Amino acid sequence: MPSQLPPQFSSSASDKACRKAIRSQIREARRSLTTEQQDSFAMTAADYTLSRLKQLKAQRVALYLTNDGELDTKPLIEALWQSKIEVYLPRLHPFSPGNLLFFRYQADTKMQKNHMSIWEPKLNITQMLLPHQIDVVITPLVAFDLQGNRMGMGGGFYDRTLANWQHKRKPLPIGYAHDCQQVGSLPCEHWDVPLPFIITPSHCHSFEL
């Protein structure tokens, strides 16, 4: 397992070029989905995910608010609330660049946009949990392969958050993506955290790690 220290991020020029090409291709593919497809896929994926979370007896689930054509999480959030499962959202750590904090998300939670124009909960320490206090983290991703490898946007936020999940056994990471985000294989580095599950509108992929 990785050390307790947050992973550092660097890469060769060829790997960076490959990752950039994959990100561009897959982001364009998911943006091309129609509104009707997005709505249908989001509902189906939410059903798959809620079923899996109930099997896992998860009571605290962190996820993300959809941005840039990602698989819409709103139906899943609504389903979690209806099932009395606590929902948490990430926000950028104000004092530790590259890291995330997680805050309880409810219908009346006060929100604000960060410097990347992504909505996140306002800083309220009474609503914060540490990652190991969360049962499951539903992770966004740009691309994935059938070895459980995940490619994010390149900031390393979730790789840092999940670097020691297998050691602590929490939080369990589950990838969430459109089927069109699957690729044959991904270039991987030592800091990349593979996922035990990736859920798409058509399938729940399970990987032995």
From TrEMBL:
Residues that coordinate or bind ATP: R150, M151, G152, M153, G154, G155, G156, F157, Y158
Report the protein name in the record: 5-formyltetrahydrofolate cyclo-ligase
This enzyme's EC code(s): 6.3.3.2
Q: Which family does it belong to?
A: Belongs to the 5-formyltetrahydrofolate cyclo-ligase family.
Keyword list, A-Z: ATP-binding, Magnesium, Metal-binding, Nucleotide-binding
Highest classification ranks of the organism? Bacteria, Pseudomonadati, Pseudomonadota, Gammaproteobacteria, Alteromonadales
**In its keyword annotation, does this UniProt entry include ATP-binding?**
yes
Q: Does the keyword Magnesium apply?
A: yes
Q: What GO terms are given for molecular function?
A: 5-formyltetrahydrofolate cyclo-ligase activity; ATP binding; metal ion binding
UniProt record, GO biological process? folic acid-containing compound biosynthetic process; tetrahydrofolate interconversion
Catalysed reactions, as listed in the record = (6S)-5-formyl-5,6,7,8-tetrahydrofolate + ATP = (6R)-5,10-methenyltetrahydrofolate + ADP + phosphate
Q: Which InterPro entries match?
A: FTHF_cligase (IPR002698), FTHF_cligase-like_sf (IPR024185), NagB/RpiA_transferase-like (IPR037171)
Q: Which residues bind substrate?
A: L65, E70
Cofactor(s) the protein requires to work: Mg(2+)
Q: By its UniProt entry, which Pfam families does this protein fall under?
A: 5-FTHF_cyc-lig
